[in-house]
Amino acid sequence: MTILRTRTPQVTPATAASLEPFRFMRDFMRWDPLRDYDLGAPTAAFMPSFDVKESPDAYQFRADLPGILEADLEISLEGTRLTVAGKREEEVLKDGERIHLSERSHGHFSRTFSLPEDVEGEKVVAELRNGVLTLMVPKRPEVRPRKISVSLG
C-alpha cells in the first residue's frame, strides 16, 4: 500500500515592509503584463527610481541615472506636472563579441510627478553629476513658512 503525502504550501507572514504602500505602488508601477510573452523585447525595462524630499524652501528630486548623458535627458514642467524622460542606449557589440550575461537594463523612460500649486516653475534647477540627477523645485516665497515675532505691549 502506498501512502500519498501532499505538501502543504509555506505561508509567509505579512510584515510591515511587505505591506508598505509606497513599496507596493512602486512594484505595481514597474509591473509589465507582457513580460511573460516573448515579443523579442528585453525582459527588464529601464525605469529609474526617484527620491523626493520636501524642505521649507523647495522640493528635491534625486534619481540614479548611471550611463545617461545630459543630451539624452529631457526635463519639462507644464503647470504642476514635472516630467523627466530619457534613454540609456543598448551596448553595441563589435565583431567577434558575444553576450554571455546581460542584466543591465536599457531603453526609454518617462516619469511624471504632480506638484503642488506653490512651486516657482521658472526657477527649477537641474544638475547631473556622477550619474545622479538632482532637481530643485523652489516654492513661492509667499507660501513658505515664516516666523512671526510677538511684541510685548
From TrEMBL:
<dbReference type="InterPro" id="IPR008978">
    <property type="entry name" value="HSP20-like_chaperone"/>
</dbReference>
<protein>
    <submittedName>
        <fullName>Heat-shock protein Hsp20</fullName>
    </submittedName>
</protein>
<dbReference type="InterPro" id="IPR031107">
    <property type="entry name" value="Small_HSP"/>
</dbReference>
<dbReference type="Pfam" id="PF00011">
    <property type="entry name" value="HSP20"/>
</dbReference>
<comment type="similarity">
    <text>Belongs to the small heat shock protein (HSP20) family.</text>
</comment>
<dbReference type="InterPro" id="IPR002068">
    <property type="entry name" value="A-crystallin/Hsp20_dom"/>
</dbReference>
<feature type="domain" description="SHSP">
    <location>
        <begin position="41"/>
        <end position="153"/>
    </location>
</feature>
